[in-house]
Amino acid sequence: MSKDCIHLQSAGKRDGNTAGCEECLQSGDSWVHLRVCLACGHVGCCDDSKNKHATRHFHATGHPVIRSGEPGESWGWCYVDRLFKDPV
User: Fold this and answer.
1) pLDDT tens per residue, the chain (88 residues)?
2) Which terminus of the chain, N or C, has fewer Cβ atoms within 10 Å?
3) Number of domains within the chain
4) What is each CA distance from 50 to 2, 11, 23, 55, 81, in whole angstroms?
5) Residue 81 covered by a domain
6) How far is CA 52 from the centre of its chain?
7) Alpha carbon of 57 to those of 2, 44, 45, 60: distances in Å?
8) pLDDT tens-digit readout, 72-84
9) Which pLDDT score is estimated for 79?
10) Separation of alpha carbons 18 and 74, rounded Å
């Protein structure tokens, strides 16, 4: 694994499409923490949430980078290279 990640380097800031996990809001479910896809703005729940919608979104779309959707957090994660970056 390389310490450099082109996906994280090229990721910009992006607002989320919704104020909560898109799929959980539709189904009436709950989440633990929110993650925002930096390719399209999809908001999904974290892997500590039972539905893991952020990771499911990555597997469905191949969009490689997410950021925390939590207030006061500014880190990012690349699913492809399995690298963390703080801050995004």
Assistant:
1) 446 899 998 888 899 999 999 999 999 999 999 999 999 999 999 999 999 999 999 999 999 999 999 999 999 999 999 999 886 5
2) N
3) 1
4) 31, 27, 12, 11, 24
5) yes
6) 10
7) 24, 7, 10, 5
8) 999 999 999 999 9
9) 98
10) 18
Identify residue 71 by its one-letter amino acid code. P
State the residue for tokens 């993650």: 35
- Within a domain: residue 22? yes
Residue 27 forms part of a structural domain: yes
For 27, which DSSP code? H
Per the structure block, which two tokens stand in for 54? 């952020």
Token code pair at residue 35: 């993650």
What CATH number corresponds to the domain at position 28? 3.30.40.10
